Amino acid sequence: MAETVDELTVNYEEDGLLLCKELDRYVLSKGAWATLVFLYQDFNRKEEVYGPKKVTIRRYQKRDGNYIPRSKFNISSMDQGRKVVEALQNWIAQEEQGK
After folding, report:
1. From CA 28, how far away is CA 19, in angstroms rounded?
2. Between 24 and which of 39, 49, 56, 70 could a Cys-Cys bridge form, CB atoms 3.0 to 4.6 Å apart?
3. Strands (E), 1-99
C-alpha cells in the first residue's frame, strides 16, 4: 500500500520478473483523490522482451492513510494516445475562444 503519491507505481513483479515496467509518470492531482498518468511496458513472456509503450491514467483515493486504486483507463497504443491529445487540444482551443 502506498501512503504518498510518490510511492504509487504501476510496476508489477511476479516470481522475481518485472511484468509491468513503469517508464515515466505525471502527477495530475494530489490530495484525497490523486490522478496519475503512467508510461509503461508489459513483458511478453513468450518473446522474453518488453512490448510497445502504453499509457494508463489511474485514480486513487486516500483512505485510512493509504492510497487505494479506484479507476483506470488504459491507452492501448500511441495512435490512440495521439487521438486523445488531439481531442483535448480541440476542446481547449474552443474553451479559449469562448465557445
Report:
1. 25
2. 39
3. 12-14, 17-29, 33-44, 49-50, 54-63, 66-75
Give residue-wise pLDDT tens across range 4-40: 999 999 999 999 999 999 999 999 999 999 999 999 9
Q: Is residue 70 classed as helix, strand or coil in its secondary structure? A: strand
Q: Which residue has the cell 487521438?
A: 83
Say if residues 22 and 39 touch (Cβ distance below 8 Å): yes
**Confidence (pLDDT) at 69:** 96
Q: Which three cell numbers stand for residue 7?
A: 510511492
Give the per-residue pLDDT at 3.
Answer: 94
Q: Rounded to whole angstroms, how far apart are CA atoms 60 and 68?
A: 5
Residue matched to cell numbers 476542446:
91
C-alpha cell, 50: 518488453
Q: Is 53 exposed, middle or buried (0-12, 13-18, 19+ CB in 10 A)?
A: middle
